[in-house]
Structures are given as structure tokens and as C-alpha cells.
Specification:
The structure holds 2 protein chains of 2 kinds.
Chain A lengths: L2 H16 L5 H8 L3 H13 L3 E4 L3 E4 L1 H24 L5 H8 L5 H7 L13 E2 L4 E2 L17
Chain B lengths: L9 H29 L7 H26 L8 H13 L6 H27 L9 H28 L1
The chains are: A mainly alpha, B mainly alpha.
Amino acid sequence: MNTADQYVKAIYLLQQMENGPASTGALADRLGVSPASANEMIGKLESRGLAEHEKYKGVKLTDEGIVQARDALQTYCIIERFLANVLSVSEFRAEARELEPVIDDLVAERLDTIIDRNDDCPDCFDPEADACCHLKIGTEGAETEQRAD
Amino acid sequence: MSVGHRVTSDRQLARLLQIGIVLEEVVEARSYHHYQSLDDAPALDSEIESLLEHAAAESAEHRKRLEALIEDLDAESIPFEEIKTLVEAQYGGTEPDDFDDILYDQLCNEETAYKFYDDLIGALRASDESFGIDRDHLIDTLVEIREEEADGVEEVTKLMNNR
């Protein structure tokens, strides 16, 4: 997943958590980058028509940005589910964060063919828990479903 | 979360190589399954038959090379036998519609594998981290596998264009 996709995904999740625009500070914290780096990337997203930035308020995604963010979130959900359900990785959240920059959506699409993703993806993603809500978080039983629909 | 393409630990590297193994399993299972389905086809196409046979054998070889790399890393193992069963079960019940369908699927497999190795090599080169295995040997192996995937893309494309 490229850097722009990681940013729009993070903005999308922060907007959900904050119920409004995402602050630059919160975005920088979430991505582990400096506020200056975050500001620079926000400028690039604005020029591509993916986000709008309002001084003192924060950044919010445009309709096009939301579509891209939901695609990126779906790719991320595939990575989490693949790690938890196929490779039985209990710390799938931490590992998904590490692998995210290296796994392309083309590759995720192929991994998706061997996992059973729910129809509600990517709305299944819980921004507070930073995980698909159908996955059990913890050190055991990562392959079991957390919530039955 | 870290932004940027870098591989920084044995565990992360092992996990990526394991993903490579699963992708190879998928290619192998699909190629084998499609190859078997040709037996029932009204007119056997020797070129496609040979392509799929070669793809399955090559994927098995790539998988073994990736497994050999992982063995030398400081990382926990994963249930490969279960994964093999899962992948085979996923494709056991699917049938390609026709020869074009088989070729298109094979093209997607080869392109995906190429993209995966290309990204992984890029991430390794972006970091000067040392791992539990020789860095040059690791990158050389992955470059060789990537080139074979590139050859595979070219072969399938040529076959598709000739049809």
C-alpha cells in the first residue's frame, strides 16, 4: 500500500473517531510521522483532489478520497484477516501495521481468495481497536470470529 | 504504523517470505487444478498444457527456495500443511470456463507474484538492516525468482496474443 493510501485510510478512521475533520497532530501520531511530514502529505492529497484542509480545524476527505480510503481499508482488513485466520498470528494488528507498506492491493486481492471476508467489509473495521470487528484481539484464538452476524 | 517501504527485522522478513510461499501455493494449486481440468477438455491444447505444467513445477521450486531462506531466520514457523490444505480446498471445487479463462488467471498469478517480489526487493534495498541470513544471498535469490515470474508473464502474454 503506498504512502498516500496509508494517509487517506488514517484520515478516514480519524474522521470516524473524531466525528469531524482529523487534526494534523492526531494524524501525525497515528502514522508515526512528524507534523511537518503530515502537513506536506496533506498538501499533496489536496492537490490530487482527495482531501481538503481547513486551518485550525483539520483535514477531511473529499468523496474521491473516501472511495480511495475505503479501498485501502479493505486491503488492510485483508492483511489482518490473512495474518489472523491463515497464518494464525495472534499479534495480527502489530504485524499488519508493519506489513502494510509492503503489501500491494494486487497481492492483497490474491490473498483475499483464501480468506472468508465478511460482506460488510470495510465497515467491519473498528477504528478504536484498529482491527476488523470480526477478529478476536488477544494472544489466543486469533482465528475465531469475535462477532457473529 | 510506519509509513514507507522498509523491512527492519527477521520476523517481518520471515512473514513476508511466508506470504510469498502462500502466493506460490496459490499459483501451484491453480495451475495444477487447471492442468487436471484439461484432461476433460474436448481438444487438448499442448501449449497450454505445457505452460501450466511448467508453472506448477516452477512455483514448487520457488516455494522450496523461500522455505530455505526462512529456515535460517530467527522467526516462528507457520502451519504450512494446513495452509496447503486450505488453498487446495479453495480451488478444488472451481472449474475454469475455457482456455482463455485459464490463461487470464495464470497471467494474474504471474503478475501478482512479480509485483510482490518487486516490492519486497525494493523494501529490502531501502533498508540497510542486517538479517539472520546473508543479505546479498537473500536479494539475489529474490531477484532470480522475480525474473522467472517476469518470464512467466511474457510467456502467458505471448500465448494469449497468438490465440
